[in-house]
Structures are given as structure tokens and as C-alpha cells.
């Protein structure tokens, strides 16, 4: 079987471990025979089939990287979702899930990239960017890495403990839009062009920019980065939600 055929085929994964990330989000570790590893930034399709044969497919970014057949998905529950409520609230260790992937080759970071990397995440948009941070650490990359993580409240942070003590070579800036931690120097507010200018690499550094989050957030941030002088070809985006 060719690599392309393998990627496009549905595989049966077994839930190996789960853990709570936030009050509405969960990490799911899956053993997926034939997965074979993925590049940081890629995603997987998950398919659920009801007793009456109805099927629902959703795409989820992969938080893990490297070779092997174990992957980590990080899923945020959508109130009206068809798939995420089951994955967050009901799936158990030992359950089987149909998975297809790894998918995607544009919104990815490879360890042979040497330019500075600026990550900008909104909410659960941190997931593929976390894979990039993990890849940076695992491969010993010396490329400068910065993350600007925008959240509604501190309790909404995915991978909070890991990002409070990030790997060497990774700088993390936190931004809160509705509620801030005690003693925080700024009141909660929307992310502005000024925030981006002061908390990200300047255009003169020619960084690779990766922006992920809800559609409105991504469009606003990408537009502001281009207005600040960044080359549009260097600003890669991945979004979720309505257009």
C-alpha cells in the first residue's frame, strides 16, 4: 500500500488514555495501528457512526508529533456539536474510534526550518501550535520560537502547566480578553495591533507566522500582521467555526 493510500484510509484507533484540559476540553490519546507518525501542524479526521448508520466526520488538530502509532487529540466541546460532546464527555479508555490521517501539508512546521517562528493562538487554536513547540523541543531546534496565546480566562488554557514552564528557546506571552489572573498588569481586552507589535517578532526578522483559532480571531490577527509589515506569504492561518 502506498503512503497516500494509507493516509486516505480509515484506521481503527483505540483510546489509551484521557485527561481533562479545561472544563470543556479533553485530551485523548489513541493507539492507531498504521498511523506511522505526523508532522507538527497536521490534523486527523474522526468518524462516528450511529446505530442507524448515520455518520459524522470532524477534523481535529494533532497535538503530538514524531514517529509511531500513538497520537494525541485535544477536543473542545461545542454545545451543538455532533462529535465533540461524545469525545469530551463519553468516550472511555478501550473504546474504538475511526481515524483518518495524518492530513495537511501547508500549515506545518518542520525542524529543518531555521527562521524565527511566531505562533499566535486563540483558545483551542493552541493545539497544532503545541505540536510545533513539542517538535521544536524534541528535535533540538535552535530556531527562535515565540507564542502569543489569547484566552478568555486563565481557566480556558489548554496545556497550561507545560506552557507556564515552556521548553528552552520558546517564549510565551499570555493575553486575556474577559478575566485576568490576580495581580495581572493589564485589564482584560481584545487583542490589538499594538499587542501584536509589542509581543511578536518584527517584520524585519522575517519570521514564519502561524495563526490558529476561531475564524474571526484569525482573520483579524492575520490582517493586523500584514498591516504591521509582515509578508502575507509568511503568515499561515488555520481556523475553525463559521466564515
TrEMBL record:
Pfam families in the record: FAD_binding_6, NAD_binding_1
Cofactors: FAD
Keyword Transcription regulation: no
Alphabetical keyword list: 2Fe-2S, Iron, Iron-sulfur, Metal-binding
Record-annotated membrane-spanning stretches: none
InterPro entries in alphabetical order: Cbr1-like_FAD-bd_dom, FAD-bd_FR_type, FNR_nucleotide-bd, MRET, OxRdtase_FAD/NAD-bd, Riboflavin_synthase-like_b-brl
GO molecular function terms attached to this record: 2 iron, 2 sulfur cluster binding; oxidoreductase activity
Domain FAD-binding FR-type: 8-109
CDD domains, alphabetized: FNR_iron_sulfur_binding_3
PROSITE patterns, per the entry: FAD_FR
Name recorded for this polypeptide: Ferredoxin-NADP reductase
Species the sequence originates in: Actinopolymorpha pittospori
Amino acid at each position: 500500500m502506498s503512503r497516500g493510500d494509507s493516509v486516505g484510509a480509515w484506521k481503527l484507533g483505540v483510546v489509551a488514555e484521557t485527561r481533562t484540559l479545561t472544563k470543556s476540553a479533553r485530551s485523548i490519546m489513541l493507539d492507531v495501528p498504521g498511523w506511522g507518525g505526523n508532522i507538527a501542524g497536521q490534523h486527523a479526521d474522526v468518524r462516528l457512526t450511529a446505530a442507524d448508520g448515520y455518520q459524522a466526520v470532524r477534523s481535529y488538530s494533532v497535538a503530538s508529533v514524531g514517529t509511531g502509532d500513538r497520537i494525541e487529540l485535544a477536543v473542545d466541546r461545542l454545545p451543538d456539536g455532533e462529535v465533540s460532546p461524545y469525545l469530551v464527555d463519553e468516550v472511555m479508555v478501550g473504546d474504538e474510534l475511526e481515524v483518518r490521517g495524518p492530513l495537511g501539508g501547508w500549515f506545518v512546521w518542520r525542524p529543518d526550518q531555521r527562521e524565527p517562528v511566531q505562533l499566535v493562538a486563540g483558545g483551542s487554536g493552541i493545539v497544532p501550535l503545541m505540536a510545533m513547540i513539542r517538535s521544536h523541543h524534541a528535535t533540538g531546534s535552535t530556531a527562535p520560537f515565540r507564542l502569543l496565546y489569547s484566552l478568555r480566562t486563565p481557566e480556558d488554557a489548554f496545556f497550561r502547566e507545560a506552557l507556564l514552564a515552556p521548553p528552552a528557546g520558546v517564549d510565551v506571552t499570555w493575553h486575556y480578553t474577559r478575566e485576568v489572573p490576580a495581580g495581572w498588569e493589564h485589564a482584560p481586552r481584545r487583542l490589538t495591533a499594538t499587542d501584536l507589535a509589542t509581543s511578536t517578532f518584527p517584520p524585519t526578522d522575517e519570521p514564519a507566522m502561524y495563526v490558529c483559532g476561531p475564524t474571526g480571531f484569525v482573520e483579524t490577527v492575520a490582517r493586523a500582521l500584514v498591516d504591521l509589515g509582515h509578508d502575507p506569504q509568511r503568515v499561515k492561518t488555520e481556523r475553525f467555526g463559521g466564515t
